[in-house]
């Protein structure tokens, strides 16, 4: 996982761990203790090496059962370990999250990452004290500095993603019939404002080639739009959207309608492109942006 995206600092350590695999849909069904070695630990979980992924028909990862079992539930692990220099053990219920194969030189064939899902508060406090005491001071400072920066960036993006900014950008769109999938010709228009959720387009007409931007025959059948957006210094990208509202523009000019379009499908990288573009732009406070 990339630095800054981890929720907790990982402390490298070696300590034996015993674990039982518990059947997700029947907690009374569990394996005898199996063995491994902890590689690192955090307040959120741990990573351990093992040569065992199953005991009989109980597997650490049982996703393959999902397709043939309507009552499927992922299996859990009950882990027991002690920290180096301490005698009192930890006994924690965990959810397996990922696995990886060890290198040829490793002592274990598999490495398993687990998330703590049921841990006593006193054990959590004890673990936190241990990590603070034994963690590398420079690495701890670096980790929490990166985490603070990541949290700040995330909060900023959460605010920006809801922001509609004034932006006049060229767009091209096609109307797609919800009934038979027929497409109109490609039509040029411009944006009035833009956000990561949608945009307000200014268009000449509400229909083209026998297709209305909103409805197909009745108000119950809503058409969709394929919209290509061109942001300066970026490669144009396409989104799928639908019209949520429209109004006639009172001023004279080339365009006759404001059309509010909500994005239905947009790639994560294109959301980021929009957020980066709008972060320094003035917000549209006209009230045109959030109807419907």
The neighbouring-strand order within the major sheet is 1-2-3-8-7-6
Whole-number count of domains: 2
- Which blocks of ≥5 consecutive residues have pLDDT under 50? none
Q: What share of the residues lie within helices? A: 10-25%
From the N-terminal CA to the C-terminal CA, the straight-line distance is 39 Å
Global geometry: elongated
Detail the topology: elements first, then pairings.
Elements: E1 11-22, E2 34-41, E3 45-50, E4 54-55, E5 58-59, E6 76-81, E7 90-101, E8 110-118, H1 121-134, H2 137-160, E9 165-166, E10 170-176, E11 187-194, E12 198-203, E13 207-208, E14 211-212, E15 215-216, E16 218-222, E17 224-229, E18 237-248, E19 257-265, H3 268-278
Features:
292 residues; alpha+beta; Thrombin, subunit H; 2 domains; six-stranded antiparallel barrel; six-stranded antiparallel β-barrel; 3 helices; 19 strands
């Amino acid at each position: 996982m990339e630095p800054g995206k981890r929720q907790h600092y990982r402390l490298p350590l070696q300590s034996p761990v015993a674990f039982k695999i518990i059947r997700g849909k029947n907690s009374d069904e569990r394996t005898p203790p199996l063995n491994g070695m902890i590689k690192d630990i955090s307040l959120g979980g741990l990573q351990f090496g093992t040569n065992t992924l199953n005991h009989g028909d109980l597997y650490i990862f049982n996703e393959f059962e999902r397709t043939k079992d309507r009552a499927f539930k992922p299996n859990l692990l009950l882990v027991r370990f002690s920290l180096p220099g301490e005698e009192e053990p930890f006994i924690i219920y965990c959810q397996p999250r990922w696995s990886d194969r060890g290198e040829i030189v490793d002592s274990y064939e598999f490495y398993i990452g687990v998330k703590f899902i049921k841990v006593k508060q006193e054990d959590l406090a004890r673990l936190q004290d241990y990590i603070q005491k034994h963690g590398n001071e420079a690495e701890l400072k670096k980790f929490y500095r990166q985490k603070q920066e990541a949290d700040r960036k995330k909060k900023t993006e959460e605010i920006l993603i809801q922001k509609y900014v004034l932006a006049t950008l060229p767009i091209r769109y096609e109307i797609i019939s919800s009934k038979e999938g027929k497409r109109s010709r490609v039509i040029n228009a411009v944006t009035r404002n833009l956000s990561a959720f949608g945009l307000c387009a200014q268009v000449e007409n509400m229909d083209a080639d026998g297709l209305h931007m909103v409805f197909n025959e009745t108000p119950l059948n809503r058409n969709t739009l394929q919209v290509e957006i061109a942001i300066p210094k970026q490669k144009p990208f396409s989104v799928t959207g639908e019209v949520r509202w429209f109004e006639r523009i009172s001023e004279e000019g080339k365009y006759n309608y404001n059309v509010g379009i909500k994005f239905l499908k947009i790639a994560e990288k294109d959301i980021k492109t929009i957020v980066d573009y709008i972060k320094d732009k003035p917000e549209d406070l006209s009230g045109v942006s959030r109807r419907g």
